[in-house]
Amino acid sequence: MQSNHWKIFLATLTAVLGIVIGWQVIEPQTASADEQTYTFATNNTFEPFEIQDSKGGYSGKNPGIEIEILKKIAKHEHFKYRLKAMSFNGDLQALESGQVDAVIAGMSVTDERKAKYDFSTPYYTDGVVMAVAKDSNIKSMKQLKGKTVSAKSGTSAALYLKKNQKKYGYKIRYFDSSNTMWNDVKTGNTAATFDDGPVLQYGIKTGVPLKIVTKKPIDAQPVAVGYQKGKNLELQKKVNDGIKWLKDTGQLDQIINKYTKGNGTTKTTAADHTILGLLKTNREALLRGLWMTIELTVVGIIFAMIFGVILGVLGVVNNKFANGVSSTLIYIFRGIPMIVLAFFIYMGVPNVIGHKVPLFLAGILTLTFDEGAYIGAIVKGGFESVSQGQWEAARSLGLPYSKALIKVIAPQGFKLMVPSLVNQFIITLKDTSILSAIGVMELTQTGTVIISQNMEGFRMWTIIAVIYIIIITLLTWLSNYVQKRMA
Amino acid sequence: MDKKYKVQVKDLHKSYGSNEVLKGINLNVKPNEVVCMIGPSGSGKSTFLRCINKLEEPNSGHVYVDGYDIADPKVNINKVRQKIGMVFQHFNLFPNMNVLQNVTLAPVELGKMSKDEAKKAAMHYLDIVGLSEKADANPTKLSGGQQQRVAIARALAMKPDVMLFDEPTSALDPEMVGDVLEVMKRLAKEGMTMIVVTHEMGFAKQVADRVVFFHDGDIREQGTPDQIFNHPQHPDTRNFLDKVLNV
Lengths: 487, 247
What we know:
A: globular; B: alpha/beta
């Protein structure tokens, strides 16, 4: 009967994981019989090239430069396409393994890549630009001596800064996200920032109070669609024809300008920057972030409980090997900082298994292992604090181990565990914010994104903090009520 | 294994590390016999009792209960335990259940009775221990003496062939002891085979068919209550009785 329970458990786990993964797949366009369908790998979000809508698709009004280009070309050249959104590395891996026909993901044409892939006609030139605060009087790199400048680590901008550090005598600070980096310029901590031209242009267009001072992009490189070498020649021709048509008709410039110049995409009306005003403008985004936080918490707690109870039971059963497995897993997962675990699952594991781990799934797995380890320790401790006499009384009646555990020990143990478990649930809710590091659009990440647009750090973080306190208060009330009912 | 014994123990050894607490015990218990085990604390009598239903694992020797050798790994210990009722010093009632559920749990879970049968049987045994009106009570709300009587009813509900009592009155306030001993006397009179570890010399004198004196991991002396209490042969026995009877 033991093994039967296991089977049921595994089946449930697989089913739920299946559903979770299912959510992440973007619904394909319906293909008609006479038109060929191609699969394009693209980025999740890489403004302004790709901009996902609230549902994670690209059906919004402003899906990004490349998506708009692809849409027009497909219509003009009579083919259908399906999009697969992944990280850029995932895109390249999918292309190499033939899972997709092409990559359209802000892909720069470099010499190394040319040796490996075929490229379409470039439709854009991407390069690093330098930006300063709106009221700054810095105009060129010569004015940067002794000042601090910034770039995202690992980017070509960072390489460029490193290479020229001696020449201009600045200090470099590295960031992980454009938003925090830009904000640092706004607050005056860094004098100038170096970032992708279109990304910065789009940011400024949507309200970031910086200005670009370089006339021409540094290290400019063309951007194009990539294919496996020598494959999909028919598609290659169609795309090139389409790009030529877009250029000739001026539509290409229109699309690019829409995202990088003037103010066509987002309404930058004189926004209300009081807390109430911010709440009103960002209501939808905040609710979506809050909902994601709750979803992560609930699904995360369910799986962490399952994992934790298994760990706890393995820790108390009469089997040295099982005890060892339990304490080792608890030791490992409690010992790894959650953010490292999240990076490992989201960015490390795909290298080994050969395809990406969907973001939501990565978040849930992180919570399951990390919180599950803590819950495992709580469960184990709870069982162990039930007196030995209870075991002896149950076993002396002839109850087998499993029945004694389920009927006698577990109910008493769980009662002892409730306060610690409730505490762990609250911690889980707060810990979901760590998943913003891998880009899960939960409440904290929502806050980061909103602030990158309106630069209202103090007010927005106040709002976010208050939202957390409110839901944690509600959760505490609920658990007090449940505990009272149980007592 | 001799068929005429309910419980037969042969050369039972038990050590904790280098400390040998049972040094080769032999004991036969006939059906309907009441055996009381006395002796100083640490003499091994409780450990011996717990070896009979394998709450302690013997290092060597044999324990036959109803013909099953509990030292044999092929014997399903859970089945044998169903025939051995045990009553503990600290009652060990299940606090997550009411009194009735404590008594019906094992018969129902082990498929011995339907829920209704078990309930009827439980009420019968609670009646025997004089607590049928406490069926719905939470065991933690009962006095020690009441809890111990529920524990006896819980053991009886499995219709055991033999009952083990491990110092059943040691944790009780003096005024509670009588009620529990009364119940045990009644069981003895009705023919229950019982092995009782006790410090109640009066009970041993009055109820036991045989008194076994434990000393230093061994049986020093055994015999009828009259032999042990009135004509002890071994100096250790005399010494012990002097101490417990002349307080």
